[in-house]
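quick one, 250 residues, struct below
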Amino acid sequence: MNQFKNNLGQTTVLTAASFVQNQYGPTGAVGSFASVFDSQEEPSDPQLRIYNLVTYLGDYRLPLPGEATGGHVAILGKLIFGIGGASCEVDFDWKTGAQISVAASFIRVLAAYSEVGPATPPAVKIAAMYSSGSRAARSQVTRSYPQILVNDENPILFPVPPYAHALNLFSTDKAFYEPDAATIRYVGGADNGFSTASTSLEIWNTDGVPFLNGLSSEDGVRFPECAKFVEISVPSGDSYMITPCFTLSL
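---
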């Protein structure tokens, strides 16, 4: 059998029956996901290559003027890749289009609805394909956590996902971005305690770039490489709905 040939791809119809609870941290067993693409080289010649993986929604479109808004589509992708007996696993946001470059001799792509609701389409066509070589253009790969309430009685603590290097925070309340509205702390490990880099959202910065300026960048705000968890808290009496979104190094 021949090894991989360029531009192999596969299309799958994802149904709402394939659903994983998209909570902070692990998203459940692989068996909960639908297989979109699965391929590996001949065991006799497992060559290392750089694979450019492309994922997209095959039948997604924006509503036309005057049309009712379409159903909410929130899909979580899972990429499993490796060489020989070593493998890695990473979750990512399945957007209308994304490119991911990994070094591997085998790749597997899975997907599932990460959120469902009354307007969720009962089925959506998704696809994945790959070719050899790194991607030609930059494509921001992200991992978003679900919207969650943070208040003085409920500070949120969530893990940094694999391959993450920067964080963006989105809120429907503009007051969340005002001075001293929120405090961010990092945890380097289970026994390390919180970092001393706790700071208000207004002055949270890396390389001298304030968080509010970082929001306008492509990557968000970088955090310490040793960070394993992030905690976000707000002053007494305050309450906000926020969505954390990490930028991945893929």
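The chain has a mean pLDDT of 74.
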